[in-house]
Amino acid sequence: MTGSGATLTYRHRPSHAMTKAFTDAGFRLSAVGEPPFSPDTPRELLPPRSVLNPVPGDVGSGAGRS
Predict the structure, then answer these.
(1) What is the helix (H) or strand (E) element at residue 51, kind and residue range?
(2) Which runs of E-coded beta strand occur in 6-56?
(3) How far is CA 18 from CA 11, 12, 39, in A?
(4) How far apart are CA 53 and CA 47, in angstroms?
(5) How far apart, in Å, are the Cα atoms of 35 and each of 1, 23, 61?
(6) What's the rounded Cα separation, in Å, for the pair 60 and 55?
(7) Which of 9, 50, 56, 13 minimizes the C-alpha distance to 33?
(8) Tens digit of each residue's pLDDT (9 = 90 or more) over 35-45
(9) Contact 29, 15 (CB under 8 A)
(10) Hey, what long-range contacts does 14-20 have (CB within 8 A, 24 or more apart)?
(11) pTM higher than 0.85, yes or no?
């Protein structure tokens, strides 16, 4: 994209809203996870729990149609 413009849009939805949307659409969730914080994230930007008790690596997710 060198020299090209782009529009990036984020839509944040809480986890419970996302899982409800998937299950309402007929998906069956077997696991829900999030990737860990980037190792480059400054400590002052991390929540206290992640500094004292780091979240293990991504537990992954499994989704399949019912």
Answers:
(1) helix 48-52
(2) 27-31
(3) 11, 10, 26
(4) 10
(5) 26, 21, 10
(6) 13
(7) 56
(8) 788 889 888 88
(9) no
(10) none
(11) no
Q: Considering only CA atoms, give the Rg of the chain.
A: 16
Cα separation, 64 vs 66, in Å, equals 6
CA 15 to chain CA centroid, Å, is 9
Altogether, the residues listed in the chain come to a count of 66
Question: Tell me, what amino acid is at 46?
Answer: L
Alpha carbon distance, N-terminus to C-terminus of the chain: 39
pLDDT tens-digit profile of 18-31? 889 999 999 999 98
Do 21 and 1 meet the contact criterion of CB atoms below 8 Å apart? no
Give the Cα separation of 66 and 49 in Å (integer). 36
Q: What tokens does 30 get? A: 């077997």
